[in-house]
Amino acid sequence: MLALRLEYLTGRVVATAYNSRNDLEWPPHPSRLFSAFVAIWADEGKPAEQRAALQWLERQPAPAIACSDIQKRSVMTHFVPVNDITLLGSLERYFTKQEQAKLKLAEIKAKLEVADTADTRAFDVLKSEHAKAEASFKKAESAYLDCLASLSTWTGKTTDAETTTARYLLPDGRLRQGRSFPCGVPDDPVVYFIWPDAPAKELYDALNGMAEKLVNLGHSSSLVHARFVEKAPDPTWYPDAQGEHILRWVSAGQLQRLEDDFARHQGMEPRVLPFAVTRYRKGSISSEHRPPASIFDSGNWLILRRVGGARLPLTRTAELAQVVRGALMRYADQLPATVLSGHESDGSPARDPHLAIVPLPNVGHRYSDGAVLGIALVMPRELASDQRRNVLAALGRWEAAARQQSGQLEDEAPTLFLGLGHGIEVEVERIVWGEPPLYNLRPDAWCAVANQWVSVTPVALDRNPGDLFSRNPAKREAAYAAAAEIVTQSCVYSGLPRPEKVVISPTPMVPGSAAARQFQPFPLNEGKFRRVLVHVSLVFSESVQGPVLLGAGRFYGLGLFRPLTKRGSQR
User: Which of 177, 211, 233 is the last residue of a domain?
Assistant: First the structure.
């Protein structure tokens, strides 16, 4: 366990919610703490041991939080003097032009350094562009320095604009802008952030060193004292995929994203800090009362949202999943890791669960059309960190290649193209941060805690149950009973309890889905034993945690179930 004790020294908290200027943030979001550590690391000169500690921390799950309730004070609007470089008018414009010219020069210089000198014509064009960019930068730099000098010396003459600017800089003439400072007084000024695992000693020491230098969290008046401790009270807030409260945490690569963002805005331009949306539930829960869960992770999904190209029906789920897996395999280390390929190094089927690629369709409401809205990369719950990195590395290389081809910026998620043959192409983009705009692209649409579940894509049965369409009632009944038992065993294989009721059907049970016979045969490869596809309804004696993915096609999006909850039934 790793626990951070944070005490608000003044007994009050001043912190604005990320999505409302008039609301107080409570409990403090864990991503705020991470960003504070990053600021300390940068001020310290970016020591390597602290960087390693931050990279370890960003890969951890969202922490549980122990804190008291808080008494929120009425929010008052205060009109405060504007402290903005834009008051200096022309100076700000000249500075911006200088920075733009500098970036352009650096870009062309980088291209020139790796240019092929054998291609004389292209090389000469780059040299010419470099000379022009260098001249533009020197001109912009000179103009900025001249403007700066003119503001620092007085010639005895002033223009009307300069007089106005000078008046705004004096105390009596400063412009004032309305600001609100949401504030609250917690019943107990101490907050604990609690992670399940602790790092190695050198990483722990680096984290504690940053905690010792933390002086405020939120507004500068929210003074704090922070230390990592050995013991912590029971959490009052804990991560829960079905929780009603949204808090911000981070994901792997957060430190690099913050560095890239700072290189762009230099602490001057407006910006929004990247974060990972995490649902929390208020209360306390012990491990023995946690609902049974499948082998697949209910959070930290990587979502590829469809942004263009063909609008595929969910009946082509397996084909689309196969194309995505093929792309990840092309950009993976060779030989591809088991988590990507689904096979051991000797070619045999993987002994442990591996990556599931799950197309997410538009289903569950009266206007559903069954079209694929995006694709989720769903990793096993107990996946080793090195295997998880293999998935992220393959996706990162795929995106880097697409970014290089399209010329998109480093901090943008590039468009990825999925070719299905016959001129059919689907365009997708990874959702970098924030909650997906469509409900069916959110993990909580598929990962609720419920005791009733129905299939959206049919289950590919692990073995042949017999003739489900036999004219002989006895044979047909026996086939349905065999299919129900096969599905029951699939539940057990997936880490779920035995359902108390299993209903087999050839027809869909969710609006927007399609009959089992309309789906492509599975497996798709010719010569393989084709599985029987059936729709299924499950009832468990106790609620279970999704996602529920069952059957032989569960790693290709078949056997995807929808929870029957009050919220889900309204969608």
Answer: 177
Domain encompassing residue 245: 2-74+185-289
Is residue 281 left, alpha or beta, with left meaning phi > 0 and alpha meaning psi from -120 to 50?
Answer: beta
Residue 208 and residue 188: Cα distance in Å, rounded?
23
- C-alpha distances out from residue 160 to 74, 157, 167, Å: 43, 10, 11
Where the chain has pLDDT below 70, the residues are: 19, 21, 74-95, 113-119, 147-180, 242, 264-272, 284-289, 408-412, 433-435, 566-571
Q: Is residue 297 part of a domain?
A: no
Helix (H) or strand (E) holding 16: strand 16-17
Start-to-end CA span in the chain (Å): 39
Whether 488 and 496 have beta carbons less than 8 Å apart is answered as: no
Instruction: Give dist(CA 35, CA 30) in Å, integer.
Output: 9
The string of pLDDT tens digits covering residues 155-165 is: 555 556 555 55
pTM value is 0.56
Whose CA is closest to 219, among 433, 8, 63? 8
- CA-nearest of 426, 447, 424 to 305 is 426
* 428-466 pLDDT per residue, tens: 999 876 667 788 998 888 988 899 999 999 999 999 999
